[in-house]
Structures are given as C-alpha cells and as structure tokens.
C-alpha cells in the first residue's frame, strides 16, 4: 500500500476518498504546520506528499522522503515554497491548484480594498470602544470606491478577476504586466502602463504577482513613495512582495492612506507587530482562498492529481512534469 503524507487536514471528503482508493494516508494531526524535524521524519517512505504554505519543499525534504517519492501535490496555486528545480532533477512531479481559487481570492482582495478605504474595521473598533456619540459630517471619511482608478500589478488569473470586480464599481483599470494582455484589456477596458506610471495614477493598487526573485520587495520604499497621495495598497499576493518597514513609513509619513493585507512579512504576523497598531491597516490571516466550496475543490484537485501520478496517468495541473 503506497503511503501519502499530508501536512495538515483538508476540508471535505477528498482524503477519505483517497483512503478508500487504497492509499495509506498519514495526516499531520495538529493545526500548525509540522516543525522541520517532524516533517523530515514523517515524509520518509512516502510515494506522495500533499504540501502547503509554510512547508519548505526543498531538496533536503525530497531526499528525506526517499527515491520512491513520485509526486508533491501543493495545496495552493503559489509555489514559492517548492524548489521546482530540485523536483525536476529528481524526476518528481509537482502539481498545484490554479484557477479554482481565483474568484475567492479576488473577492477577498476587493473586500480588503473596500474595508481599508471606507474604514470598516476602524469604524467597528470605534463603536466597540463606546466612542460613537453622534453623527458628524467629518467622522471617518475615506476615499470613494466608485469611479476611482485602480492599478493591478500582475494581470494573471486573480489580477483580471479583481479588475472585473473593480469594473462593477465603474473604476478605471490600469495594469502592469510583463506581457500585454490584449483580450483582457479589451474586455475590461484596461490600460497597460509601466509600474511607475501605475503607482503615480492609481487611487488603489492591488498586488497579484507570484513571489519570485524579481517581485521580492517589488513595493520598496522608492516605489511606495511614488504612490498617489491618499492611495490604498492591497496585498493578497505574498507578504514578501512588500517591504513591511517601508510600508509603515509610507503610511505614517508618506502618501499612503490605508492598506489591506491578507499576506504579510513576517507571516504569521505577531499580535504586537507595529502594523497592527496603525488604525488604517486591515489584516486578514492569509485567507484569500478560504471559501468553503473553494477549499473543498482544492482538496479534490490535489488528491486527483496525486492519484493520477501514482496510477500512471497525466495530472491535470502539473507545474513540473519531468
Ligand atoms: N492570499 C491568498 O490566499 C492567495 C494568494 N495567491 C497569490 O496570488 C498569486 C497569483 O495567482 P494567479 O493569479 O493564479 O497567478 P497567475 O500566474 O495567473 O498570475 C500572475 C501574473 O503575474 C505576472 N507577473 C509575474 N511577475 C511579474 C512582475 N514582476 N511584474 C508584473 N507582473 C508579473 C505573471 O506574468 C502573471 O500574469 C499566486 O502566485 C499566489 O502567490 C493566490 C491564491 C490565494
Ligand atoms: O493558493 C495560494 O497561493 C495561497 O496563497 C493559498 O490559497
């Protein structure tokens, strides 16, 4: 019986189905990720791994698993925690979950934009503190969403889905992308511009690139300083795409009005982190894809692809096919 190690429990029936199909499914029982030593120990002898954020799937892990390891099925679309080259060299297939989580993540990005701009969390805290004494024309003013200009950085699946939501609010869409996207441009009446121009013109900037050496700290002090006065930054990509210290500085002394962050650096963000003391920073704990239906479908995708590899068929969502 082939063994599969799963680094956290998954919602829905997918793991039960994998067991019924004859696999020995070993699930890490805790809510937090396995510590490194435990991870290296538990992967030993596995033919397949289901990994996710916080699991460093590198050469050391692959070698600790052993030569029978055929597939790493990553329970996310982002693959920045997986060493794809190491997998390729060892003949290990890597799969992931593109597409299925696009709408859930775009929904959350838009929710963060609305919450940060219109001060939803700040307003809630204000009421909870018992400070709501009267209606006042100057209470908690924020920038308008409708008819604003939004800048989308990384115009792939989630970036375009976010832009579709922005169009529903009659926003003008600018995008920065390595390659032109003429079809999406036409459908969304979007304008491709250089990143610096986007930062100078957009009222709201939403980040949707993968984390790569090129996008690491893409939003550094210099770029944050180029943003429009009163702008709002939304990050549902990866925390390391933004320089956290520079972000705080841009909020306190620079042009930024507010930020909505689903991903942070560091991540998880400690409760005493200075970002959480800023009244106009809204943080969610990396829940972009956490729609109930989405997370079940992600579980189906990883288990179906994992079985495909172990049973000699082609997986549908391969990032590495040696
Ligand atoms: N917060 C969350 O829970 C989630 C976060 N994500 C993050 O969102 C990312 C994007 O996901 P998808 O849209 O599905 O990927 P995608 O591959 O469809 O889109 C990414 C786009 O970014 C572009 N890009 C890459 N480097 C760039 C650069 N330097 N400048 C401008 N554009 C650049 C790519 O060409 C591509 O068009 C994932 O890699 C992941 O890190 C994804 C899902 C959930
Ligand atoms: O899919 C991803 O990349 C995530 O961050 C979690 O769904």
From TrEMBL:
Reactions catalysed according to its record: (R)-glycerate + NADP(+) = 3-hydroxypyruvate + NADPH + H(+); (R)-glycerate + NAD(+) = 3-hydroxypyruvate + NADH + H(+); glycolate + NADP(+) = glyoxylate + NADPH + H(+)
GO molecular function: glyoxylate reductase (NADPH) activity; hydroxypyruvate reductase [NAD(P)H] activity; NAD binding
GO cellular component, one term: cytosol
EC number(s) stated in the UniProt entry for this protein: 1.1.1.79, 1.1.1.81
Record keywords: NAD, Oxidoreductase
Domain D-isomer specific 2-hydroxyacid dehydrogenase catalytic intervals: 4-318
Pfam name, any one: 2-Hacid_dh_C
Keyword Oxidoreductase applies: yes
Family per record: Belongs to the D-isomer specific 2-hydroxyacid dehydrogenase family. GhrB subfamily.
Protein name, UniProt field: Glyoxylate/hydroxypyruvate reductase B
